[in-house]
Amino acid sequence: MIRWKGLEIDRVARSVRRGDAQVLFSSGHHGRPSIIFQIFCALLLDRPRTKPELFNHIYQHDPDGGPLDGWHIVDIYFCQLRPRMDVLGLVLRRDGLNTSHVYWLEPI
Questions:
Q1: What is the percent of the chain where pLDDT is above 70?
Q2: Exposed (0-12), middle (13-18) or buried (19+): which is 32, by Cβ within 10 Å?
Q3: Contact 94, 106 (CB under 8 A)
Q4: In the prediction, which pLDDT does 87 show?
Q5: From the CB of residue 39, how many other CB atoms can be counted at a distance below 10 Å?
Q6: Over the chain, what HEC string results?
Q7: Taking the model in full, what pTM does it have?
Q8: What is the mean pLDDT of residues 6-19?
Q9: In this structure, are residues 11 and 41 in contact, taking their beta carbons and an 8 Å threshold?
Q10: Residue 30 pLDDT more than 70?
Q11: What is the largest CA-CA distance in the chain?
């Protein structure tokens, strides 16, 4: 269990709680956490990252290297995260110039 800024993140149960709000994430392939949960944790608990860095973080152990769309698929993952962020009172932040934008999650 990880506690950070009022959030409780349970990596085993793949759940996140903030106050009375809770979000559950599905399991991924071969017992690994889902991609959405991995991105969520990376954006919340790690340093701000660019989209290519997020893509590499998620697919670094994939023997095929991940989807053919490459790091552009991260935008789809951001869209899938939005309803969960709303429930938990989080916002996706962005900073930087042009293609070097970095992203992270923070409580509202």
A1: 94
A2: exposed
A3: no
A4: 96
A5: 23
A6: CEEECCEEEECCCCEEEECCEEEECCECHHHCECHHHHHHHHHHHCCCECHHHHHHHHHCCCCCCCCCCHHHHHHHHHHHHHHHHHHHCEEEEEECCHHHCEEEEEEC
A7: 0.83
A8: 93
A9: yes
A10: no
A11: 40
